[in-house]
Amino acid sequence: MNLIEKLGKVAADKWLHFIVGMILAQLTIALLCAVQNDIILAYGAGMAVALAAGFIKELKDGSHADVQDFLFTLLGGVVGAGLALIV
Question: Which residue, 5, 36, 67, 84, is most buried by CB atoms nearer than 10 A?
């Protein structure tokens, strides 16, 4: 099984968590870079916001919380921060 097939088997819900984490990280980084010069702080904060959002979302889900949802949100934050670093 190749990578494309494996990615295609990931549920749409997980991709939404990934995208939200990525967007939250990138928005946080952009906002912080616009108001201060500490790039390391901005990237750390971007990933922290994605982590916090995923954690809070799963806490609100209560007994229906899904660790994979949290991990996909966090992974999206890491990828989003990495993409922001490239740009």
Answer: 84
